[in-house]
Write a structure and sequence with these properties.
GO terms for molecular function: transmembrane transporter activity. The chain has 105 residues and is mainly alpha-helical. The chain has one domain. Helix content is 80%, strand content 0%. It is built from four helices and no strands. α3 runs antiparallel to α4. 28% of the residues are buried.
Length: 105
């Protein structure tokens, strides 16, 4: 259950990052509200997962999911650049997440 909570928390991190971008510096009401609600839910789920998972594992996986997800959303939805260096960086983050999962109990 902790891993499910952690993955969901990471997905909500992607949501709030995207809507923070769309809020235009918190000047638009709906994207700002979605950002704040997703942030609170993400942090709440992260805290629940941390009851069971080690701090380093939980926090690394949470931020990694958010970083990779935001990277993908940036490319697919916002039209951000796809370069070999950016792809290599994303692959390194993904590799780190897999290793973190494999090394946890």
């Amino acid at each position: 259950m902790a891993w499910f909570q952690l993955v969901l928390a990471g997905c909500l991190e992607i949501v709030w990052a995207y809507f923070m971008k769309k809020s235009e510096g918190f000047t638009l009401l709906i994207p700002s509200v979605v950002t704040l609600v997703a942030m609170v839910a993400s942090f709440a789920l992260l805290s629940l997962a941390m009851r069971v998972l080690p701090l380093g594992t939980a926090y690394t996986v949470w931020t990694g999911i958010g970083a990779l997800g935001a990277f993908v959303v940036g490319i697919l939805v916002l039209g951000e650049a796809v370069t070999p260096m950016r792809l290599a960086a994303a692959l390194l983050i993904l590799t780190g997440l897999v290793l973190m999962k494999l090394s946890s109990n």
